[in-house]
Amino acid sequence: MFRFLALRAGRAILTLLICVSAVFIALRLAGDPADIMLSIDTPPDVRAYYRDLWGLDQPLHQQYLRYLLSAARGDFGASFADDRPAFAAVLEALPKTALLGTSALLLALLVGLPLGVLAALRHNSVVDRLAMASAVFGYAIPIFFLGILLILLFALKLRILPSAGSDTPAHLILPMVTLGLPLAGRLARFARTSTLEVLGKPFIRAARGRGVMPLSVIIRHALPNASVPLLMFLGIEIGGILAGSAVVETIFAWPGVGRLLVDSVATRDLAVVQAVILTITVIMISANLLVDILHILIDPRLGGFRQAGGARA
């Protein structure tokens, strides 16, 4: 276990370095932030002052080294727009994204998981075909198109739900559904495949042969074994939730990290963009590391393999 965690920690540090470096270079090659933040008629001496203040007058490699050293000390720079710490802006928006992402994930679990298991239990039946048709429709429709449709129907036509903001629980419904339904569709298809694979295993046939009740076979034998690949699937989908939140938060004016990233990229607010990317990368790495640890704890065979590998090493 220790060898596994040490290896994953090394990969996590390398991934962070690659992501930060790629974003740093891409943003600076995309254009001068001073041209975006300052008006066209700004005097040259004022423009030079702000370029010096933001460190944009230095060579690219010096800017990069200074950023790495500052980030290692926990200093991610200040926003070009309002001069507040970049990481403080991210922390202010993070709870909203966490609320939206968690709500969407719960919706996907409540809808997609039962739908996929039901389709597997009714394999090749009308229920199976209807369930999978619904799942395909759910994950095939683009998120931005689904969001616009929901706004047109529930906010403009029926006028029963708000279309923007985050002041009340009602403001969460449309963004949650927009982000959660495509995930529910993918989860339903994956749950169906995993459950069908487990139902064909010899121990399931043996349990049925011993006269175990069908419901007990499903709950005590099939679902626990099918949950292992589903857990890995959910770990991968964390990245999809974070990526989709940028689109959903922009459509519904939800003040989260995704919208902050879009706005910061539009204004070339380099410090905030880099802080957001670093935060998202840490969240994804932590989530996948947690899933890997849970996978080892749930699956004794994998845990035994890791221990044996560590002993041989």
TrEMBL record:
<dbReference type="GO" id="GO:0005886">
    <property type="term" value="C:plasma membrane"/>
</dbReference>
<feature type="transmembrane region" description="Helical">
    <location>
        <begin position="230"/>
        <end position="255"/>
    </location>
</feature>
<dbReference type="InterPro" id="IPR000515">
    <property type="entry name" value="MetI-like"/>
</dbReference>
<dbReference type="InterPro" id="IPR045621">
    <property type="entry name" value="BPD_transp_1_N"/>
</dbReference>
<keyword id="KW-1003">Cell membrane</keyword>
<keyword id="KW-0812">Transmembrane</keyword>
<dbReference type="InterPro" id="IPR035906">
    <property type="entry name" value="MetI-like_sf"/>
</dbReference>
<feature type="transmembrane region" description="Helical">
    <location>
        <begin position="12"/>
        <end position="31"/>
    </location>
</feature>
<feature type="transmembrane region" description="Helical">
    <location>
        <begin position="98"/>
        <end position="121"/>
    </location>
</feature>
<feature type="transmembrane region" description="Helical">
    <location>
        <begin position="133"/>
        <end position="156"/>
    </location>
</feature>
<protein>
    <submittedName>
        <fullName>Peptide/nickel transport system permease protein</fullName>
    </submittedName>
</protein>
<keyword id="KW-0472">Membrane</keyword>
<keyword id="KW-0813">Transport</keyword>
<dbReference type="Pfam" id="PF00528">
    <property type="entry name" value="BPD_transp_1"/>
</dbReference>
<feature type="transmembrane region" description="Helical">
    <location>
        <begin position="168"/>
        <end position="188"/>
    </location>
</feature>
<comment type="similarity">
    <text>Belongs to the binding-protein-dependent transport system permease family.</text>
</comment>
<dbReference type="GO" id="GO:0071916">
    <property type="term" value="F:dipeptide transmembrane transporter activity"/>
</dbReference>
<feature type="domain" description="ABC transmembrane type-1">
    <location>
        <begin position="94"/>
        <end position="291"/>
    </location>
</feature>
<dbReference type="Pfam" id="PF19300">
    <property type="entry name" value="BPD_transp_1_N"/>
</dbReference>
<feature type="transmembrane region" description="Helical">
    <location>
        <begin position="275"/>
        <end position="298"/>
    </location>
</feature>
<keyword id="KW-1133">Transmembrane helix</keyword>
